[in-house]
Amino acid sequence: MGSERDMKRYIAVKKKGMITIAALTIVAALLACSQLAGGSPAPTATPAPTEGSGGQPAAPAPSTNTPAAARASSNKGSESLPASVNTTAELNVRTGPDTNCPEVGTYPEGTQVQVLAKDPSGEWWQVPYQDQIGWMSATYTTPVNDLSGVQAIPGPACDTPVPPTSTPTNTAVPPTATSMPTATTAPTCGDGVVNGSEECDGSAGSCGLGSVCNNSCQCQAVQFVPISVCGNGKVEGSEQCDGTAGSCGLGSVCNNSCQCQAVQFVPISVCGNGIVEGNEQCDGSSGGCGFNQVCNGSCACQNMIIQPVGP
Fold it and tell me: Fewer CB atoms inside 10 Å of the end CB: C or N, the chain?
């Protein structure tokens, strides 16, 4: 009875061992495929457990191979970092290894910057800056790691500015005062102010000798005529005569306007001198008054009434 149980137990352990060996064989095959694909060595298959005392399987022996992931983790710290430097001052990043090259930006003091290359003199580092490639001075940097592998390349040349022969002096030109236009009013002739196109205005302005300011406020040439006073015995201005002054010629006399006026000479009559003169009709017995007329005291013919004489 006891040997039958032992036999069944032995068969069960044997089957379990065979299953374990088959599983390990499959794992080994998979690791071998992984080794071929990734280059990592496949771990050594663990031998099938052997039956120990009492029919129990023995513990598997520990593997002597280290997995690939563990080896990668142990080697991670030994990988080389990119060549880098620390800035010891605020540095300008330029388009080329020369202070004449334009600036593209700056790195603050204490910034760790990756080094891409250096110039042949070793005085400039080629470094990345944002989305550009520039150059900064190596004088004010300290290495972070080994820089012996940094390649030397020539940088782009930049034009050297030509210094001016003389420094021009900037002389500030004072702004010129611009006079604002004055509102112009239409000239008013007669206001005593010369404006606009006026040449004069009353007593304002000067028209010069021989000219006077007319009603249009323009200078106008005039002819001076002396002022005449009729009756002062002097021929002046427009006078032709003045009393006995001047000569009006035969048949003219000087009138009250001091102008020569033509006249008709009439003899002066003296009634009673016996001479019919002027406008006399008769003078005494002189002249003829006609029938039934007599010469009266005014030397005029006068009609008379004839009456019979006697009783």
Answer: C
CB count within 10 Å of CB 120 equals 11
- Just give the CATH number of 84-143: 2.30.30.40
Domain ranges of the chain: 2-63, 84-143, 268-311
Kindly report whether the global pTM for this prediction surpasses the value 0.70: no
DSSP category for residue 66 = P
Coil, helix or strand for 201?
Answer: strand
What is the dihedral sign for C-alpha 140, 144, 147, 151?
negative
Total residue count of the chain as it appears in this document = 311
Q: E strands of 70-222, at which residues?
A: 84-87, 91-94, 103-107, 112-114, 117-118, 124-129, 132-137, 141-143, 211-213, 219-221
Which pLDDT tens digits describe the chain residue by residue (311 residues)?
456 666 667 666 566 667 777 777 776 777 765 555 544 444 444 444 444 444 444 444 444 444 443 343 334 443 568 999 999 999 999 999 999 999 999 999 999 999 999 999 999 999 999 999 999 999 999 999 999 999 999 999 887 665 666 555 666 666 776 666 665 667 789 888 888 888 898 887 778 888 888 988 999 898 766 678 898 888 988 888 988 877 788 888 899 899 999 987 666 778 988 888 888 889 887 677 887 788 888 899 988 877 777 66
Tell the residue number behind the tokens 């990668």, with chain if given.
72
